Predict the structure.
Amino acid sequence: MLITPINILALIFAYLIGSIPTSVWLGKFYHGIDIREHGSGNAGATNTFRIFGKKLGITVLIVDILKGWIAVKLFYVLYESGQNVDELFNLKIRLGICALLGHVFPIYVGFKGGKGVATLLGIILALNHEAALMSIAVFLIVFIISRYVSLSSIIAGLFFPVVVMVISKTSQPAMVVFALMISIAVIITHQKNIERLLGKKESRVNFFNKKTKEEVQVSQANKQ
């Protein structure tokens, strides 16, 4: 990638978009609570559902997905078509990665964010929506059967490169590499979840079960 002022600014802007700590800000605004101090301690949609219920959970999920999608689509605002196709696609991936790093390490709240699954979904929707939708289907099937968000995310993440390479048969080498990186990243970020799954200690999720503020305190006391 050519190092130009517009490229650098675009990557920084993508990071800042990804850094928007949706669950942290909404939790503090509506409940006066930092979600990172409760439940799993994760600043993501799943913990938001668990602690604050479906209304805020759905809001966080949608906004976090949009962060990744918008970061990649930023490309179309800044760059014209007709340039080297592979290089431009690589730039889209870099924009997405910057947004993902922003979500995991948000500058606005001390660089402690979420695992980035929802933001990653927004990124792959913008890059390859067919593969993304197939992975979403896998996630939903596993979740309906198991009610484990972590297990569903892991299996969907492992399935994504298979879709990209075998079903979509993408001609973009960078997309294949990115898909493989996603699988590795999902496994790394879910190591504790994998340990709990193997030890049968992972919590199942009911997205429609809203907890009271008192229950939040209980979940903090029992935090794993």
About this structure: Confidence is low (pLDDT under 50) at residues 212-224. Residues 19 and 103 are 5 Å apart (CA to CA).
